[in-house]
Amino acid sequence: MDDLKSKYLTQIADAADEASLEDIRIAAVGKKGEVALKMRELGKMTAEERQVAGPALNALKSEINSALAAKKAALADAALDERLRSEWLDVTLPTRTQRRGTIHPISQVTEEVTAIFAEMGFSVAEGPRIDTDWYNFDALNIPGHHPARAEMDTFYMHRAEGDNRPPHVLRTHTSPVQIRSMEATGAPTRIICPGGVYRADYDQTHTPMFHQVEGLAIDRDISMANLKWVLEEFVKSYFEVDGVDLRFRASHFPFTEPSAEVDIRCSWEGGTLKVGEGDDWLEILGSGMVHPKVLEAGGIDPTEWQGFAFGMGIDRIAMLKYGVPDLRAFFDSDLRWLRHYGFAALDVPTLHGGLSR
Asked: Cβ(217)–Cβ(307) under 8 Å?
């Protein structure tokens, strides 16, 4: 054991990097290391021999592990010192005028959407990202057994034992803003609700945090025809085309009745999306007439008022318009990506001056 101790403590002291240190650890105290093999020999010893050899082996293993940890910390400190010596910046130097900040595509598209709906008389409403499950689910006619309320789909905030307050969630859509707006202003109303939302999902087309914009219009004589016109005008303005075909497919959402998924006519040529032509259809949003129970939850009498609502993913329509292949890239904080897809800071989108430049 003294030979093993001397051997490995010397090797640890001489290790030049963490890779070498890991090799030493495996050879010494790994599952098939020399110390482990010695411990397997304890079964062949007498009880008296084990009483001597067992504690000695444990002490050896502990000493080697301590030496490994100390050497790893020393290597990390040395690497940090080297970075501090080599990575420096003279803050007194003049700025590089050719490096200009750019607007993130999500921020740009949010401004584009706001500009389009502002021309149609919609104002912007905002609300908290952490809300009660009443605003996020119950007020929107989403029953307690609905799959969206399961913890595998929704992020619930921690509740201390004995806390009797309503559960809070990271909002799964911006629909709670509609309820809060109805409570605050009543009817008639015409709003859009852009903002960040959260769901437990992550792949090429889903992220745990993403952005939505929802619209709500309430008046005495609003119908699905009004909804269709609003969406047609939006799609034409957003994709900057003269004409567009929309297809409404019957669907089901707890908060609208009737409900419809909306597709746009398009074509894919060489991987490029062209809206308003071709024989393909692409789903872009969900919509419908506001359910009477949702109006009641917002303090509005459904026997006097009715309205439509719609919702779409800002990240998704940004991907479609600007050719971004992976939704996760929006959140990678890669300056090279942002310089490629970003927008000039002073380019404010307007319908008169153009949305994208």
From this structure: yes
Residue 340 contacts residue 325 (beta carbons within 8 Å): no
CATH class, 105-344 region: alpha beta
Residues 6 or more apart from 267 whose CB is under 8 A from it? 273, 274, 277, 278, 279, 280
Quick: pLDDT tens for 183-215: 999 989 999 999 999 988 766 666 788 899 999
Q: What is the pLDDT of residue 357?
A: 59
Q: Are 228 and 242 in contact (CB under 8 A)?
A: no
Confidence at residue 151, expressed as pLDDT on a 0 to 100 scale? 75
Residue 169: φ, ψ to 5°: -135, 160
Pairing mode, strands 130-132 and 168-170: antiparallel
Alpha-carbon distance of 125 to 185, in angstroms, equals 11
**C-alpha–C-alpha distance, residues 40 and 265, integer Å:** 71
Give me the residue label for tokens 């567009």. Answer: 244
Alpha-carbon separation of residue 243 from 29, 258, 278, 282, 321 (angstroms): 71, 26, 12, 16, 16
- CB atoms near residue 98 (< 10 Å): 5
- CA dist 240 and 274 (Å) reads 11
Judged by DSSP in three states, 347 sits in coil
Q: Would you kindly state where each structural domain of the chain is located, as residue ranges?
A: 2-86, 105-344
By the 8 A CB rule, do 138 and 179 touch? no
Those residues whose C-beta lies under 8 Å from the C-beta of residue 287, and which sit 6 or more positions away, are 227, 231, 248, 256, 259, 260, 261, 262, 308, 309, 310, 311
Closest CA to 127 of 183, 190, 210: 183
Tokens of 105: 């595509």
Burial of 216 by CB count in 10 Å (0-12 exposed, 13-18 middle, 19+ buried)? Answer: buried
